[in-house]
Amino acid sequence: MLELGHVLVLAGGLSYEREVSLRSGRRVCEVLKADGIDVETRDTDAALVPAVLADPPDVVFVTLHGGSGEDGAIRSVLELLQVPYVGAAPDACRVAYDKPTAKTVVRSVGVRTPDAVVLPKETFHDLGATAVLGRIVERLGLPLFVKPCRGGSALGGSIVRKAEELPAAMVGCFAYGDTALIEKYIEGVEVAVSVVDLGDGPVALPPVEIVADEGVYDYSARYTAGHTEFFAPARLRPEVADACARLAVTAHTALGLRDISRTDIIVDGEGEPYFLEVNVAPGMTETSLFPMAAAAAGEDLGALCRGLLLAALRRR
After folding, report:
1. pLDDT at residue 226 in the model
2. Mean residue pLDDT across the chain
3. CA–CA distance from 110 to each of 36, 107, 252 (Å)?
4. Which member of 15, 24, 194, 288 is catalytic?
5. Catalytic site residue 108?
6. Where, in this chain's numbering, is Mg(2+) 2 bound (predicted)?
């Protein structure tokens, strides 16, 4: 029988989501320590590789958000070091982290996702913002949602309800990335569905419904207690909740993910779910959606984390 020895939790990094990552790392450490597991946390700095070489952990739990934590870079280093870790392999991370690419993949297997246009900053400037943005509004209509093609925590994202709001939304988006995803905004119920695979295949946890005070689930609404109301499980008809679960598992599988993921979905007025994006390293903070989903399923977070670590260890 496999036993967990020394566990390393990676948290921090240099992305815009560093503080959230540190909070996620602390939470995972707390629940693992409470379960009697030998665990430590490390940042992804110049001391990481020498430390791992000097004292290799048995398995790593990645709680890095954004940047190298989700684009496959750090996982590539862990592969070089031959250290097992929780989560998707580098190639799958690269596909999932790029939102337009992920949308293309899931659409190819029959999953609905809002129509969108991808616009690099250079095109925005070189071809003339007014002409290009005018065509986008004509094609997709209003409202729109603008967000960076890479990154998370809703940084750089905003709703555009009037055409004159689009230029400012683009500028705000480009502050966090060089390429914008301009997506048809679908009014409806926003839900998140977490998927876990402890070795017997991916299973969806109950969907979590998100109701932000200001109507937008932005960075402040995500990580400030009291700014958003959550319902776990979501207040959906059983058949709609089942459709959301199937969508999340389908996306997880089509994108080649493993162990854990979280899919963000919008359910329109007809009860049809649409894929928005997927996260390969779901947040683990006190206000994050994965722990809420686990609680709604009657699962202990520490036990789930232990199971994920054992699944990663078995791959070795």
Report:
1. 67
2. 92
3. 44, 5, 13
4. 288
5. no
6. 277, 279
Cα-flanking dihedrals φ and ψ of residue 62, to 5°? -90, 115
220 vs 216: CA distance, rounded Å: 10
Domains in the chain, ordered, with CATH? 6-88 (3.40.50.20), 94-112+187-315 (3.30.470.20), 116-184 (3.30.1490.20)
Which pairing describes strands 189-196 and 203-204: parallel, antiparallel, or unpaired?
antiparallel
- Which one is catalytic: 21, 24, 153, 158? 153
CA angle in degrees (0–180, nearest 5) for 144-149-155:
75
Q: Distance between CA 311 and CA 305 in Å, rounded?
A: 10
Please indicate whether residue 153 is annotated as part of the active site.
yes
Tell me, yes or no, if the pTM score tops 0.90: yes
From the list 17, 183, 190, 209, the catalytic residue is 17
264 is in an annotated binding site: yes
- Give me the mean pLDDT over the 76-95 stretch: 97
**What distance in Å separates the CA atoms of residue 138 and residue 264, rounded to the nearest whole number?**
26
Q: Which residues contact 76 (CB under 8 A, 6 or more apart)?
A: 90
Is the Cβ–Cβ distance between 36 and 80 less than 8 Å? no
Tokens of 298: 């009657």
